[in-house]
Write a structure and sequence with these properties.
Elements lengths: L2 H14 L9 H7 L1 H14 L8 E4 L10 E4 L7 H24 L5 H4 L5 H10 L10 H7 L2
Parallel strand pairs: 1-2
Length: 147
C-alpha cells in the first residue's frame, strides 16, 4: 500500500473505528527485547481501547494476557480486515513518530527511512553515532558503536 493510500485508509479507520494505541520506547525495548516490547505495546493498545472487546484477533503467533478470548492469525493482515486496519494504524503512528524524531534529530533522516536499516541510516549511524532515541539492541546501532 502506498503511503498516500495508507494515510487515506488511516483517516477513514480512525474516524469510524474504536481503537487504542500502545507505544513502548527504546529504553524498554532494549531492556525487555523487541518481542516482549511488541506484546507490551499490544496490551497497552488494548488498555487504551476504552472498551472490553468481545474477541481479539492478533497478527502473528503472539499470545496476549486478556480477559477477552484471543486468536492469533499468521499473516493476519492479509486475512482479516480488523487486523489490516490495526496494522495501518500502527504503521502510520510509527511513521508519524519518526517524522517528529526527524525534526529533533535531522542528521539521521528518520522522515525518509522511518528507522529502518537503510544504507542512509547505517551511514548516519557511522558518521554521528546513535541518537538518544536509537535502540542499542538494534544491530546497526551495535555495529556503529564499533567504529
Amino acid at each position: 500500500m502506498s503511503p498516500e493510500k495508507r494515510l487515506r485508509a488511516y483517516r477513514e479507520i480512525i474516524k469510524n473505528a474504536v481503537f487504542g494505541v500502545g507505544i513502548v520506547d527504546e529504553k524498554i525495548i532494549d531492556e525487555i527485547n523487541i518481542h516482549a516490547a511488541t506484546i507490551k505495546a499490544m496490551e497497552l493498545a488494548l488498555s487504551n481501547l476504552g472498551v472490553l472487546p468481545d474477541y481479539i484477533l492478533i497478527d502473528g503467533r503472539v499470545k496476549l494476557k486478556s480477559a477477552s478470548p484471543t486468536e492469533a492469525i499468521v499473516m493476519g493482515d492479509s486475512k482479516s480486515l480488523s487486523i489490516a486496519a490495526a496494522s495501518i494504524i500502527a504503521k502510520v503512528t510509527r511513521d508519524n513518530l519518526m517524522i517528529n524524531y526527524d525534526l529533533a534529530y535531522p542528521r539521521y533522516g528518520f522522515a525518509r527511512h522511518k528507522g529502518y536499516a537503510t544504507k542512509a541510516h547505517k551511514l548516519a549511524l557511522k558518521n554521528h553515532g546513535p541518537s538518544p532515541i536509537h535502540r542499542f539492541s538494534f544491530q546497526p546501532v551495535k555495529d556503529s558503536i564499533l567504529y
